[in-house]
Amino acid sequence: MSTSGAASPPEQPAVFTRIRLADRRDVPNIHRLIHQMAEFELLTDLFSATESSLSSTLFPSPPLLPFHSFTVLILEISQSPIHNAAEDDSDLGFRPLTRRIALKSVFADPEASIFASPRGDGLVVAGFLLCFPNYSSFMGRPGIYVEDIFVRESWRRLGMGKMMLAAVAREAARMGCGRVEWCVLDWNKNAIAFYEGMGAEVLPQWRICRLTGEELSKYAVDEEDSAGRP
Amino acid sequence: MSTSGAASPPEQPAVFTRIRLADRRDVPNIHRLIHQMAEFELLTDLFSATESSLSSTLFPSPPLLPFHSFTVLILEISQSPIHNAAEDDSDLGFRPLTRRIALKSVFADPEASIFASPRGDGLVVAGFLLCFPNYSSFMGRPGIYVEDIFVRESWRRLGMGKMMLAAVAREAARMGCGRVEWCVLDWNKNAIAFYEGMGAEVLPQWRICRLTGEELSKYAVDEEDSAGRP
Predict the structure, then answer these.
(1) Which residues of B80-205 form beta strands (DSSP E)?
(2) Are strands B14-21 and A201-203 parallel, antiparallel or unpaired?
(3) ipTM
(4) CA-to-CA separations, B147 to A132, B126, B184, in angstroms, rounded
(5) Which residues 149-178 in chain A show a CB within 8 A of chain B?
(6) Rounded percentage of chain B residues whose pLDDT exceeds 90
(7) Per the database record, which ranges form the N-acetyltransferase domain (chains A, B) (predicted)?
(8) Is the C or the N end of chain A the one with fewer CB within 10 Å?
């Protein structure tokens, strides 16, 4: 005879997620995530970020106002429900978003210890998003540009990328922004289908022009001012 | 017998240009220029900017720091050398650039009176550039994104667009930015050749994704928070 009465149903495996603003303590994880992203995009030759450069440009003192300058969101996961600490409801104005995601089965994250969250509590960093304001002159309104959206391999195909992008879209809509934009590689058909499913349009005709490296440095030198200066 | 001695050589026709920071007084001209740009790009259906929206987003009080937020440069032309007033060497940190451009012949600008500069002195506004900071996570450094670069029809093919873009590239290089980026329509072969001539690379594989209008508004509504909030 069972002492627990009727057998309880088997518990559905789940993972708990949180999306919160990054701070300076997240820099080592952000640096590792950016490197993984460069590997995924086969662009490691362009990778030159250091923890120091990320720290000084993304997390200066006083901190940048979220969504009004460079903004990093961190995606954390946990095996148990995540309770926000007081510091998470800061004056910076982005309240962390928590969710429970049902899993078909429990699986291992071989990088869990490398990506331990600086917030402790067994939290593990699973991804990030980096965005900043842009501007539509045709609309006469600011927008938000998402430079990066990345989820580590163990946690893909669970809707976490969409959660981060939706969090930005929510902020943009509430702030009265005209649009949210980002880029995708034309061979990444899965990503394109995913973004179109979110309501985005992929613009076929625009191409990015980039001036960088030595070609950019050349412009630091003043040309002769043929009209003379006062 | 001539009283002036030897005949002086015929004077080469020329126009004098200035690139300076825009301020709130430039809004009516900026609005007209953006509309002309929308006509040129066959995109007037996307044009919804008003003088009021441009004024509040581009020229708030206190003013935005140039090249650290939304920044508008104004291109002015004059028949005589342009002398910068004291207000042009302001604390905002962008010293106006003046040039003399030789012309093959003198020609009329039928829109000169519509585009009179608010700075007076017979100056006429011939174009503008709008840019703002972006960020390269691979480099761990900010860059500058040029959203618009536009010269009115009368003043094209004289190198004025290049002058404005070079002015931004100079600022970017001096600020330690990793790159300057902008977009071009893939059918605009003249523009592509022009940008490549300036040292830029056109990236073939990236496409812009855009979430706007009703599709964006949908995200303003909070989804249920299945994990509950504290």
Answers:
(1) 97-102, 124-136, 141-151, 179-185, 201-203
(2) unpaired
(3) 0.89
(4) 14, 17, 10
(5) 166, 169-170, 172-174, 177-178
(6) 77
(7) 72-221
(8) N
* Helices marked H in A157-206: 160-174, 189-197
Nearest CA distance, A80 vs chain B (angstrom): 10
Token pair listed for B179: 């790159």
Whether the CB of B135 is below 8 Å from some CB of chain A: the reply is yes
Residue with tokens 């004291």: B86
Pick from A169, A204, A64, A99: which is nearest to B214 by CA?
A169
Q: What is the pLDDT of residue B105?
A: 86
Find the helix packing angle between B51-58 and B27-40, rounded to 10°: 110
Band the pLDDT of A3: cuts 50, 70, 90: very low
Q: Model's pTM, two decimal places?
A: 0.90
Shortest Cα distance, chain A CAs vs residue B2, angstroms: 32
Where are the extended beta strands (E) located within chain A? Answer: 14-21, 71-78, 97-102, 124-136, 141-151, 179-185, 201-203, 206-212
Q: Comparing C-alpha atoms, which of A157, A162, A130, A98 is closest to residue A29?
A: A130
Least confident of A195-204, B36-45, B133-142: B36-45
Q: Which residues pair with B23 in a beta bridge?
A: none
The proportion of chain A whose per-residue pLDDT surpasses 90, expressed as a percent, equals: 77
CB B191 within 8 A of CB B185: yes
Contact criterion met (CB < 8 Å) for A207 and B219: no
Are B206 and A208 a contacting pair at CB < 8 A?
Answer: yes
**CA of A113, closest CA in chain B: separation in Å?**
24
Contacts of A170 in chain B (CB under 8 A): 219-220, 222
Report the percentage of chain A scoring pLDDT > 70. Answer: 89
Q: pLDDT confidence of A22, banded at 50, 70, 90?
A: very high
Nearest CA in chain A to B41: A138
Q: Is the minimum CB–CB distance between B224 and chain A shorter than 8 Å?
A: no
How close does chain A come to B94, measured CA to CA in Å? 14
A-chain CB neighbours of B137 within 8 Å are 34, 37, 49, 54, 130, 147-148
Residues 6 or more apart in contact with residue B154 via CB below 8 angstroms: B107, B108, B109, B110, B111, B126
**Mean per-residue pLDDT for B151-176?**
95
What are the tens digits of pLDDT across the range B49-93? 999 999 999 999 988 899 999 999 999 999 999 988 766 655 667
Task: Count interface pairs A-B at CB distance under 8 A.
Answer: 268
Q: Binning pLDDT at 50, 70 and 90, where does residue A218 land?
A: very high
